[in-house]
Amino acid sequence: MAHLSLRNLSKRYDNNPPVIENLNLDIHDGEFMVFVGPSGCGKSTLMRMIAGLEEISAGELHIGGELANDTPPAERGVAMVFQSYALYPHMTVGENMGFALKLAGKSKQEVAQAVGRAAEILQISHLLERKPKALSGGQRQRVAIGRAIVRKPKVFLFDEPLSNLDASLRVQMRIELSKLHKELGTTMIYVTHDQVEAMTLGDRIAVFNQGRMEQLGAPLELYERPANQFVAGFLGSPKMNFVPCQLKDASSSEITLSVAGDNRLVLPSSHTIAARGDITLGVRPEHLHIVPLEQGFRARVDLLEHLGDAEIVYLELAGSEQPIAIKLPSGGHGLKQGDLVGLRPDAARAVLFGKQGQAIRLQ
Amino acid sequence: MKAKLNPAYLSAYAIVLGGAVIMLMPFWFMFVFATHSDTDILSVPPPMWFGDAFLDNMRLLLGRLPYFWHNLGMSFYVAIATTVLNLFFCSLAGYAFAMFEFKYKEYLFAGVLSTMLLPAFLGMIPSVLIMTGLGWMNEPRALIVPAACGAMGVFMMRQFIGSAIPKELLEAARIDGCGEFGIYWRIVVPLITPAFGTLGLITFIGAWNNFMGPLVIMNDMQMYTVPLALRSLSGTGQVPWGAISAGSAVAVLPLLVLFVITSRRLIEGLTAGAVKA
Ligand SMILES: Nc1ncnc2c1ncn2[C@@H]1O[C@H](COP(=O)(O)OP(=O)(O)O)[C@@H](O)[C@H]1O
Ligand SMILES: [Mg+2]
């Protein structure tokens, strides 16, 4: 077990712009840390730097308090699970799992014992004699995780390990990974582009965008108090609504917004907001309520999506390209396509975003 | 399934069959002539079926070529050594070209490939000069070392390794504690055996049949390889066709055996990469 500390870490290929830039991050001992972000933002690169598969261009990486920049991968005490599983095709499941120990010079007996224990945890004891090509996707995934467990690493690294599985298996493996983390108590770093995986698995989440860490925190903290528009838009499904507005006036107790030209919206605030002019109102679908026309801003119902337990209503706002989504309990609201309704955000949950995307809270 | 008997179908078969007969005929006559005396062979029409003079022909051959068995051994030695070295060095080089990033990689690879453009004859005089300089003339290593790593093999291995082995596999091994040579030896080599079969067969046949190389390098009859030894029979006086045929048949036998053993692998190797397993 070990904590990791990343100090001003950077990665740059030749003369291209940096893929990871000046990253500072501490990952606690035993923590489940998730790196999340859109494809191409540098999550895998960062993980591969931690694993020792990519050279670190600048900065320092400490694993368990020791500088690891130039430590070979095998000596870092890390184990990695790849998206493609990367099982050795010519070895049996048992040989795959025991390979690292065999290379480390452990006796046959020790290897067999360690492999047997890991296989039991993952319920793959009956597969040990098979070759990887005779396994299903879910079984290969388990073997890949088993291979990591056998090494008793200080840090587990997972690079999008579930993205090749079908939806139901993915949910099941997600739960098992969570359990595994509780059982082993080892530091785990998990890379994904899937915000649901991030929200459900992580003790803390680091949200990445174009090589920079946008925000770091516990899942709910990020969901409820996003630091900027990128994080707010990335976490949550359906996405947070971004409504273009003008901030007309602000006092110490309320602000006046003009939404889509002629809609005046007054929201209570707990402090004086300095910004003026073009601004974005961010509000999640479940925090947007239908009110009489004069109490909110007007929008026209465009589409209703029935999810069974809830309904997503998509509305058009004059002067905005993006549809607005609201989430309502199923049935009973009597809305139909073409209806004109008033919408009002829950002021305690709404956020304003300034021109640079920084979050400005009302309360 | 019943074959359709329409004329187009039949004529296609006839053409293929004709081609096969024309290609197999020399083989057939080589084996047939190996069992007939020279007078039989030169009669009109020539014998079409096996006779009983094989042992006489062999006796004649060994009389004219007292070192024939030694020549055969030399052929084996050169061909096997060349093949083993090619498999090793070509796969190492192919692995590097397929999997590693390094400076001037494209230029180096282009350099390797460009050696295929030069006709082998062009290298004869320089190689004799070099071998004389090294004092390797008349020694098998003068045949083996220059042929130890062919451009064709490097190219083939690069293509095969690039398509058959995902990089993540090597990274997994690196994390598991394999050194760079360990990755090659424990991961890459076991996964490229089909390509080894193909390259091995091609190299072995090439080395076995090589005539020009031994011709310029080897001076003593004792050091000749089989093709050179057999060729030396037809230089002076009456050509002993029966003996040459018998020697050729003996020389071809190892190739036939090798081909039967590796033909399945060979076809796998030639089509590998077309479909991912
Ligand atoms: N070997 C490389 N050379 C140049 N650029 C690379 C290399 N590897 C990755 N990149 C770039 O780094 C960026 C981040 O890649 P990656 O870490 O794989 O993203 P993610 O895992 O978040 O999808 C991408 O824009 C990619 O083009
Ligand atoms: Mg990635």
Largest sheet of chain A: 6 strands, mixed
- The third-level CATH topology of the largest domain in chain A is Rossmann fold
Q: Could you give the order of strands across the largest sheet of chain A?
A: 6-7-8-3-9-10
| Total beta strands of chain A | 21
Note the overall shape of chain B.
Answer: globular
User: What is the helix content of chain B?
Assistant: over 70%
CATH homologous superfamily (4th level) name of the domain at 66-232 in chain B: MetI-like
CATH architecture of the largest domain in chain A: 3-Layer(aba) Sandwich
Order of helices and strands of chain A: EEEHEEEHHHEHEHEEHHEEEEEEEEEEE
Tell me the Rg of chain A in angstroms.
25 Å
Enter the CATH topology name of the domain at 66-232 in chain B.
MetI-like fold
Distance between the termini of chain A: 40 Å
Show unreliable segments of chain A. Answer: none
The chain-level structural class of chain B is: mainly alpha
Oligomeric nature of the chains:
heterodimer
Number of helices of chain B: 14
Rounded Rg of chain B: 23 Å
Pfam family, one (chain A): TOBE_2
Keywords (chain A): ATP-binding, Cell membrane, Membrane, Nucleotide-binding, Sugar transport, Transport
GO molecular function, one term (chain A): ATP hydrolysis activity
Domain ABC transporter (chain A): 4-235
